[in-house]
Amino acid sequence: MTDLHVVLGATGAIGSAVAAELAARGHRVRAVSRRAEGPDALAADVTTPEGAAAACEGAAVVYQCAQPPYAKWAAEFPGFTDTVLSGVERAGARLVMADNLYMYGPVRGAMTEDLPYAAENPKGRARAEVAKLVLDAHREGRVRASLGRASDYFGPGGLNTILGPTVFAAVAAGRTARWVGGLDVLHTVSYLPDIAAGLVTLGEHPEADGKAWHLPVLAAPTGREFLDMVWEAAGGEPKHAALGRGTQRLLGLFNPVVKELGETWYQRDRDWVVDDTAFRAAFGEPRPTPHEDAVAATLAWFRKQR
Q1: CATH of the domain at 121
Q2: Residue 237 within a domain
Q3: Entry's InterPro entries (predicted)?
C-alpha cells in the first residue's frame, strides 16, 4: 500500500506547514504548487482536470491546502473544489481539506461542528458550498474525505493573514500593532504548526472520514491579551490599538483587502470561540503549542524577513 501523501498548495502557509509535519512523521511527501521546486515537489495547476489528476496520481492521502485569491472565493472556489475532487477520485485517494469557519455565519456561544451553515455573505456561502461538495462526494462513495477547520492563524510563513501584517510585521518593525475588531472580545487563534498537526492526524486516521472537525486550539485570548503577549515577546514598549468598523470602512475605500473584511465583521465584534471537544475525544488529547511559544517563534520569523 502506498504511503504517498500529496499536499496541494504546498508553497502556501498551511500547505508548507503540512508538508513539514508529514516529513517529520516519516511520511513520503509530494509537494504540489504551480512553481514547485525540489526533488519531492511537482509543478502542476490543480485548477485544471489534467493538473489535478497528475498531482494526485499514486496518492494515499491528498491534503487540499490550495485556494483561489480571497476576493475570488465566491466565483472560483466551488468549481476549483470539484476539479480537485475529480483528481482525488481518479487516484482512489483519501482527501483532507484545510477549512475555516466562514460557513457558520454570525454565532453566539462557542462554535461546534453541528452548527448550521447560516452564512449569508458571498464568502461564507462559497465555503458552505465547498464543504457540502466534499461531504456529498464522501456520502456518494466518490472519495473518502474529511475537513479540518481552523480559525484566524498565525505562525512562521503566515503573511496572508489578518494577524501577519497588522500585528507581527508591525511589532517586528517597532510600529503600533493593530487588532482588527474589538480588543476586549475573545477570539480563538490557530497556530500554523498546530493546524498542520491536526490535518495530518486526520490524514492518518481513516475513521475521521465523512466529517468536519475543529482542529485543536488553546483557550481563546482577547485581542488585548494577544497583543500583550506579542509585545512581551518583542521586549519593547507596548503600542497597540483596535481597528474598528469605521476605520475599516474608511481604509476600505483605498485598500481592497481591507474592504473585504466588512463582509465578515461579525467575526470581529463579538466573542469568536472554537470548541474542539470532538477532535480531542476522537483522537486523544493533543498538545497545542503554548501561546507564548507560538508568538515568540512567529515574531522571530517576521524579524528575519525584515
Answers
A1: 3.40.50.720
A2: no
A3: Epimerase_deHydtase (IPR001509), NAD(P)-bd_dom_sf (IPR036291), NAD(P)-dependent_oxidoreduct (IPR051783)
